[in-house]
Write a structure and sequence with these properties.
alpha/beta; 7 helices
């Protein structure tokens, strides 16, 4: 009896302006290659620092968008592919994009099964697949770096021959995953950090990263 052919998984290249992420890195290809055939679209990892040769060395086949359209059983993408990749009927797409109406309409018309990562239950068992938390953490970190670059003063206190520069004050409005990461990053850069959140229970999390919680007395709100 002949062996059943392995499922074909394809990694699509991101095409949106500014998109630098890739859905699968070479290290993960090496872990999956024994159980699946893996196609990687040419240039898919370039913006993330992974050359096509890195994927070949890990065990993947570098392919064109046409190859992916024709051969893939499962397509992995950071965001749902644009028209460059034709999504065949019954193809499984795993990506972000659950709340993009244009994407949803196109996927419905092509009868593609879309496993939208935003809709994964945010439970302990699914923590490793919680893309919302992981990307929010990165966003909080990047927000501080971008803010520091645009700010007219430096974040840390500095003592120079000309005098002392006071540290900047950074306030996070909201102490979710992104806010907490922003606070921790700003504090590491030397800023004085504060946070406000409508949830009083967030105080403990804010203080755990070294920030001061801004509490508002409900009776004084006008």
């Amino acid at each position: 009896m002949s062996a059943q052919p392995l499922l074909m998984i394809a990694v699509a290249r991101g095409r949106r302006p500014g998109e630098r992420r890739v859905a699968l890195v070479p290290a993960d290809v090496a872990r999956l290659k024994e159980r699946f055939q893996i196609l990687v679209e040419r240039g898919a990892g370039h913006e993330s620092g992974f050359a096509d040769e890195d994927y070949r060395h890990a065990g993947a086949t570098v392919a064109t968008s046409r190859d992916i359209s024709v051969k893939a059983d499962v397509i992995l993408a950071v965001r749902a592919p644009e028209d460059e990749i034709e999504l065949r009927r019954d193809t499984i797409l795993i990506s972000l994009g659950a709340y993009d109406e244009d994407v949803a309409a196109r996927l419905r018309s092509s009868a593609v099964l879309h496993l939208a990562l935003e809709r994964l239950p945010r439970t302990t068992r699914a923590q490793a697949m919680d893309v919302l938390s992981s990307q929010a953490s990165v966003a909080g970190y990047a927000a501080v770096l971008e803010g520091a670059r645009e700010l007219g003063i430096m974040l840390p206190m500095m003592t120079t021959a000309a005098g002392v520069i006071k540290p900047a004050n950074v306030v996070a409005l909201g102490a979710g995953v992104a806010g907490l990461q922003a606070l921790a990053t700003a504090r590491r850069l030397g800023a004085q950090v504060h946070a406000f959140d409508v949830r009083a229970a967030a105080r403990e999390q804010v203080e755990s990263v070294g920030a001061k919680f801004i509490a508002i007395d409900a009776d004084q709100r006008e």
